[in-house]
Every structure is written in C-alpha cells, then in structure tokens.
C-alpha cells in the first residue's frame, strides 16, 4: 500500500512537471508573439523591439523557461502584460467565485444523481425509470452554456427573479446577494452534471443489482435492502469514487464556461479574457492551476479507491485474475 | 425473391437496434440540411434586407438578427461547420490515436511505458482546456479548433487502442499465428485491426459528439472560427443579448446541437448493440 502510494505520488509529480513544460512550450513554439499584447496595430519597429524585450521574447526559449520556472518555484507567476497586476492575487480573487460555484454545484448534482441513478436502475422497466434514463441521456448532448442561456431568458429576463449576470461589487461581504447571483449558474451546472452523473450511477447500480453476490445474499435470506447495503454499497463505491473524481473535474470545467454566460469574474472569465488579449502570464497561471487541480483530484480519487477496495492495492494480484 | 431477401437482411440492421435507427435519422437530418445548404439557402448570408430582430414569419422562419440577416439561413449554414469539425477532429484523433496506440501495443518495454504515461497525463487534461491552450497560441480559427479538438481527443483513442490491441495480442489465435511465422504486419492486418475496429468505431461516434460540443463551446466563448462563419456556438453567443425579444434565435441553434450530438451518441449505443452479439437484446 505505502509503496504503491509513493509510486503513484511520483507519477503525479511527473505529470505536473510535464504539464508545466507543455503549457509553457506550446505557447512559445506555436506562431504568435506574446509582445502582441502590449502593442497597437501601428507600432514602430523600435516599440516592437522594446515590447519584445519587456516580455523576454528576445531571449531563447530555454532561457525564458528557466527564469519562468525559477520564479514559479517561489510561487511567483509573474505580472499580467495587460494590467500589470501580479497574476497570483488575481487568481486568488477569481477562485473565490469559481470554487464555491464548483463545490456547491458538484455536491447538489452528486446527491441528485445518486438517488436518480439508483431509481433509474431499480425501476429500469417502469416508465419512471425510463424517464430518468432519458433525462440522463440528455446531459451528454446538451451544451452547458445553452442551458444557462435558457435559464437567463426565463428566470432572469422574463420573470426577473434573479440577476441575469454579474456578481456583487462587495463580493462575499454581502453573502445573500452573492449567493443570489450564483443561483442560476449553480442550477445550470446542476442540471447538466446531475444528468451525466445519473447515467454512470445507473450503469454501476445495474451491474451491482445483477451481481451474483446480491443473488447469493438474497437466497440466504437477506432482504433486498440488507443485501444492497451490506454487499452492494461497498462494491459499488469503487466505481462511484472514480466517477465522482472525473465528474468533479468536469464540473470545474463546466463552471469555467458557465461563468462566461453569467459574466461572473471567476477563473473561466479570466482565462477567456487572457486568451483574447494574448496575456501569456495570466493564461499560464490559470491553466497551471486548473491542471494542478484536475491531476490532484484524479490522484485523490485513485487513492481513496485503493483504501476502499483492497483488491486494487497490488497490481500483481489484479494481473493474476 | 433473392433480391428481396438480401434487402430484408440489409434492413434487418434497423430492426436489430431502434437506438441506431433513431440516431441515424437525427444525424441524417443534419447531414441532409448541410447538403442542401451547399446549393440552396433561403437568403444569402450577407442579405440584410429583413428588418432588424424581426419575429418569425413565413418570410423568415426563425426571424432575423440585429443586422436584419435571416437566422434560418445562418442555422443551416452552421450545420456545415458542425459536421466539418466533427469529421475533421475525429479523423485527426483516429490517425494520431490509432498510430500511437498500436505503436505502444506492439513494442512493449520503454516505448510502451513512456507512451502509456503520456496518454494518462493527456487524458487527465480536459479536451476543452487543451483546445483553449492551442488556440491561445495559434489564434482563433476553424482549423485551429479542429486541430485542437482532434489532438485533445487523440489521447482517448490512443489509450483505448493500446488497451484493446494488447488484449488481442495475448489471445490464443495470435500466439498460434506467431508460432506459424506470421509477421507483425500480418498479425496487425489479419487479427488486430479486424478485432479492434468495432470498439474503436463506437468510441469515434462518441468523440464526434464531444467534438461538436467542444467547438460550440469555443465559438460561444469567442475562441472558435471568427465571423463571418456561422458556427452554432457563435449564433448562441450573438443571440444571448437579444434573447428576450428574439428567443427563437437562442433556442434553435441549441436544439440543432442537441440533435446532432444525441444522434451520434445513439449511433454509438446502437452500434455497440449491433456489433457485440452478447449485448443484443440486453438494453
């Protein structure tokens, strides 16, 4: 277990290092010059050279990478080319919106889909279960921003119950209005994410309900509830955790798009704006943080799975099966 | 008589899987619209003769946009972009993914180990983010979007190909073929590819749907093909500011995306049932 954990942790670190290099190099090696962010269309050659010097584009890529990575080790992500403000505090402020948006939506969506997925599997042949399965199909086909758009149209513009966009200036100092402006974005993500999660939960539950161990437990006299709670839950929890890990990452991504629909000043809006402005330090900062979170979530999900299911701990054992 | 029997056999595919039939009709509808739009469109896309933000009428089925252009014409022009992105991205993903996946499967050792960990890292990276990173460097264009989505999805194809091919390579019939002196190339053509493609094609249909959704997302964020291209995502972006006065402009492109993506997913589910005899009649 401990050796496996160390091995997986080393793999996490390597993945992070690869991501750091890829994010940096991809931006530098593909055509496009970071100094564009500082220049107007009719810049003189002198201005161009000055701008290139300012962002370091006149130095070799390796040279640039070394100084960037060196700063990164001191948790210095540089300054925005456009606003001149340091990147890290900007990301911190954006996270105050993106993290609550992601975590609240994820929790609600996970709870809904656990119930809906179980019911869809249990009542698979009744109209109720079929309806739930139909709902779970939609989630993979509906663009999350479109759901947001429709909700804005109905609940913000037509009925005027919620703000159609923006976040209060005072931020979380006015918790009620902050939550109020997050209600529609959260609902948007919950609709799409609970639908796609229900699909997974259903298929896992179907496997469990059809399994031999449930049948054996039932034949030995356990009630269905007893058999499911004692044997089904533990077996189902392994794929559940893996699903939750993947879905937490995609909820975070959903939040990135939904922020743009509701013009919330979160991480997603920051990234889209930075890309449009060729603001490399901001792009790198946001992408680094996002990759970091996605990889760490994956690592945690894998680790928890191994705690729950002893069969996964040693790869050699799985190989023998 | 013989002919009708063969026709019946050919169409028995549809009886075998209603899911597949529904999926095919959804996708077929979009394909048909795209084909027609090549030759005919109710209005020229630059035609601003309609009034601004007109409601739906017999002249303008979905109404007009802020500049008086016909929304229905834009919608059917958008089908071409959606289909192009799907085909382009899926092809790129297939070419890169199948090549790298097979390479890893046929060369165990450090090649396989390196490629496998690269696939794992790339898969952890969400498609949309990878696409945004490539577009950040390359600039927004239709080609950049196709390339970005294709590369991002190739990690999924690679890992799948590797896993499947490795499993096939351990089968008795492959061992038998090797004992008989069949070359690597012969095993690839005779055993690996025929057993690989059913699962692969199911997943390509799913990737097609993901590609359409991702492109719509990029265009909605303003990172897709720049104007004057009429991606459904861009139509939604433009419709957002006028959704109260012209709701159809925001509803129609969304329905079109759902139809195409759902259609591709139904095709994938249907193919899974049809190609795998053990799955038949289960769902």
What does this structure look like?
The complex is a heterodimer of chains A (321) and B (283). Chain A contains twelve helices and no strands. Chain A is mainly alpha-helical and 321 residues long. The two termini of chain A are 19 Å apart. Chain B contains ten helices and no strands. Chain B has helices at residues 2-16, 18-39, 71-106, 110-124, 127-138, 142-169, 172-179, 184-220, 232-240, 247-275. The longest helix of chain B is centred in the last third of the chain and has 37 residues, at 184-220. The two termini of chain B are 33 Å apart. The relative contact order of chain B is 0.15. The model of chain B has no long low-confidence stretch (mean pLDDT 82). The chains are: A mainly alpha (321), B mainly alpha (283).
Strand and helix map with partners:
The complex is a heterodimer of chains A (321) and B (283).
Chain A: H1 2-29, H2 45-55, H3 61-73, H4 87-122, H5 127-138, H6 144-158, H7 175-209, H8 212-219, H9 224-261, H10 267-276, H11 280-308, H12 315-320
Helix pairs in contact in A: 1-11, 4-5, 4-7, 4-9, 5-7, 6-7, 6-9, 7-9, 8-9, 9-10, 9-11, 10-11
Chain B: H1 2-16, H2 18-39, H3 71-106, H4 110-124, H5 127-138, H6 142-169, H7 172-179, H8 184-220, H9 232-240, H10 247-275
């Amino acid at each position: 277990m401990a050796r496996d954990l160390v091995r997986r942790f080393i793999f996490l670190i390597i993945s992070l290092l690869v991501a750091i290099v890829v994010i940096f190099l991809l931006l530098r090696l593909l055509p496009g010059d970071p100094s564009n962010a500082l220049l107007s269309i009719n810049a003189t050659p002198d201005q161009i050279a000055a701008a290139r010097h300012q962002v370091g584009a006149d130095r070799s890529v390796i040279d640039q990478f070394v100084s960037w990575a060196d700063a990164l080790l001191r948790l210095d992500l540089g300054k925005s080319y456009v606003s001149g403000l340091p990147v890290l505090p900007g990301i911190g402020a954006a996270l105050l919106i993106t993290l609550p948006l992601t975590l609240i939506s994820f929790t609600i969506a996970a709870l809904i889909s656990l119930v809906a997925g179980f019911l869809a599997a249990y009542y698979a042949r009744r109209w109720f279960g079929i309806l739930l399965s139909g709902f779970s199909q939609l989630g993979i086909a509906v663009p999350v921003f479109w759901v947001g758009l429709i909700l804005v149209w109905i609940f913000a513009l037509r009925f005027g119950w919620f703000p159609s966009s923006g976040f209060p200036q005072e931020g979380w100092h006015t918790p009620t209005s902050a939550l109020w402006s997050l209600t529609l974005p959260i609902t948007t993500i919950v609709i799409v994410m609970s639908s796609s999660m229900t699909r997974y939960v259903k298929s896992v539950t179907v496997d469990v309900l059809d399994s031999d161990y449930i049948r054996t437990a039932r034949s030995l006299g356990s009630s269905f509830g007893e058999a499911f709670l004692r044997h089904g839950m533990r077996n189902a929890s392994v794929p559940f955790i893996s699903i939750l890990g993947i879905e937490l990452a995609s909820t975070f991504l959903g939040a990135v798009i939904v922020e743009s629909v509701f013009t919330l000043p979160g991480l997603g809006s920051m990234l889209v704006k930075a890309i449009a402005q060729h603001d490399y330090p901001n792009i790198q900062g946001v992408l680094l943080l996002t990759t970091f979170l996605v990889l760490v979530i994956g690592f945690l999900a894998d680790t928890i799975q191994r705690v729950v299911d002893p069969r996964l701990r040693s790869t050699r054992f799985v190989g023998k099966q | 008589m013989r002919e009708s029997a063969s026709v019946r056999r050919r169409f028995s595919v549809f009886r075998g899987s209603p899911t597949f039939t529904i999926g095919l009709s959804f996708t077929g509808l979009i394909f048909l619209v795209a084909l027609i739009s090549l030759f005919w469109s109710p209005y020229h896309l630059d035609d601003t003769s309609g009034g601004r933000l007109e409601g739906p009428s017999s002249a303008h089925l979905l109404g007009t946009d802020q500049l008086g252009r016909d929304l229905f014409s834009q919608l059917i022009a958008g089908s071409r972009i959606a289909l192009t992105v799907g085909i382009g991205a899926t092809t790129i993903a297939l070419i890169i993914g199948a090549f790298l996946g097979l390479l890893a499967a046929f060369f165990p050792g450090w090649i396989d180990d390196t490629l496998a960990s690269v696939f794992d890292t790339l898969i952890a990276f969400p498609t949309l983010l990878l696409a945004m990173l490539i577009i950040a460097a390359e600039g927004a264009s239709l080609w950049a979007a196709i390339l970005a989505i294709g590369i991002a999805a190739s990690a999924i194809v690679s890992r799948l190909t590797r896993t499947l091919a490795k499993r096939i390579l351990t089968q008795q019939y492959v061992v038998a073929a090797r004992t008989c002196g069949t070359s690597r190339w012969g095993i690839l053509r005779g055993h690996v590819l025929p057993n690989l493609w059913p699962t692969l094609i199911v997943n390509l249909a799913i990737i097609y749907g993901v590609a359409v959704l991702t492109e719509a997302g990029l265009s909605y964020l303003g990172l897709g093909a720049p104007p004057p291209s009429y991606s459904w995502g861009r139509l939604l972006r433009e419709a957002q500011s006028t959704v109260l006065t012209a709701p159809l402009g925001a509803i129609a492109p969304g329905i079109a995306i759902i139809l195409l993506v759902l259609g591709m997913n139904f095709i994938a589910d249907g193919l899974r049932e049809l190609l795998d005899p053990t799955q038949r009649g289960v769902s």
